[in-house]
Amino acid sequence: MADLEELSNSVIEGNEEKVVELTQELVDDGLEPKEIIRQGLIGGINVVGQRFKDGDMFIPQVMMAAESMKSGMEIVNPLLAEGESSSVGKVVLGTVAGDLHDIGKNLVGMMMESASLEVIDLGVDIDPEEFVEAVKENDPDLLGMSALLTTTMLEMQNTIELLEEEGLLDGLKIMVGGAPVTPNFADEIGADRWAQDAAAAKEAALELIE
Ligand code: B1M
């Protein structure tokens, strides 16, 4: 019989096939979906997050682990009873206009998902109007913007200004990050938080949404 530790280890190993098989077995054995998520899937990705932070795991391994966790989640999430949703908050995330770098943003999104945040990833090259539309449509708790180019980071400011013009900043937290973005810049443009890496972004998101 499958157990939760085996599931969590398979997430850490990034063994997607095994994660799917074990998750289904645990469901068939009648285990609570919440337990499967908390102790198996998220339990595993939390270890991955810590190892990544400590420099003991690298980007490709983290991505494989996150993909495995997601596949397990797809089996369990529909089984959660109404009002028992595993999401603790909603995040809209994207890379700003003119910028096609998405590796860091994807890692940030995966880490946030591992913390039970619902992430709506808009992709790359997202202009201020598109961010504004997504905020109107999804009513998120947090908007996260990523930029990797010194020439595109100013789009973060343009987006915040447009959100303000549209009266959408009430109750909406803003987080920015990416290699050229500094805490000072985040302050100057009126963002609520800057985060250095994906693990810090996850922690900051949870604090902001709390
Ligand atoms: Co480009 N690129 N690139 N590039 N590229 C950089 C960023 C650069 C520093 C390389 C260099 O010159 N040394 C330089 C920028 C210079 C500058 O502006 N200061 C550069 C350039 C110039 C360019 C082009 C203009 C090159 C050209 O065509 N002449 C071009 C621009 C294209 C465009 O965007 N319009 C370009 C293109 C590309 C590729 C397409 C080839 C590819 C991107 C592929 C992809 O993303 N799908 C690419 C890559 C891979 C890089 C480097 C090598 C690596 C970036 C990366 O993925 N890092 C990069 C040089 C480098 O950084 N060493 C470089 C790994 C990733 C995990 O880290 O993205 O920093 P990072 O994300 C971290 C944190 O920053 C933070 O957490 C992440 C995870 O820990 N974080 C957040 C990120 N977003 C966050 C959001 C948050 C919080 C934290 O809250 C919401």
TrEMBL record:
<dbReference type="InterPro" id="IPR003759">
    <property type="entry name" value="Cbl-bd_cap"/>
</dbReference>
<dbReference type="GO" id="GO:0008705">
    <property type="term" value="F:methionine synthase activity"/>
</dbReference>
<dbReference type="InterPro" id="IPR036594">
    <property type="entry name" value="Meth_synthase_dom"/>
</dbReference>
<protein>
    <submittedName>
        <fullName>Methionine synthase</fullName>
        <ecNumber>2.1.1.13</ecNumber>
    </submittedName>
</protein>
<dbReference type="GO" id="GO:0031419">
    <property type="term" value="F:cobalamin binding"/>
</dbReference>
<dbReference type="InterPro" id="IPR006158">
    <property type="entry name" value="Cobalamin-bd"/>
</dbReference>
<dbReference type="InterPro" id="IPR036724">
    <property type="entry name" value="Cobalamin-bd_sf"/>
</dbReference>
<dbReference type="GO" id="GO:0050667">
    <property type="term" value="P:homocysteine metabolic process"/>
</dbReference>
<keyword id="KW-0479">Metal-binding</keyword>
<dbReference type="GO" id="GO:0005829">
    <property type="term" value="C:cytosol"/>
</dbReference>
<dbReference type="InterPro" id="IPR050554">
    <property type="entry name" value="Met_Synthase/Corrinoid"/>
</dbReference>
<feature type="domain" description="B12-binding N-terminal">
    <location>
        <begin position="1"/>
        <end position="88"/>
    </location>
</feature>
<keyword id="KW-0489">Methyltransferase</keyword>
<keyword id="KW-0170">Cobalt</keyword>
<dbReference type="Pfam" id="PF02310">
    <property type="entry name" value="B12-binding"/>
</dbReference>
<dbReference type="GO" id="GO:0046653">
    <property type="term" value="P:tetrahydrofolate metabolic process"/>
</dbReference>
<dbReference type="Pfam" id="PF02607">
    <property type="entry name" value="B12-binding_2"/>
</dbReference>
<keyword id="KW-0808">Transferase</keyword>
<feature type="domain" description="B12-binding">
    <location>
        <begin position="88"/>
        <end position="210"/>
    </location>
</feature>
<dbReference type="GO" id="GO:0032259">
    <property type="term" value="P:methylation"/>
</dbReference>
<comment type="similarity">
    <text>Belongs to the methylamine corrinoid protein family.</text>
</comment>
<dbReference type="GO" id="GO:0046872">
    <property type="term" value="F:metal ion binding"/>
</dbReference>
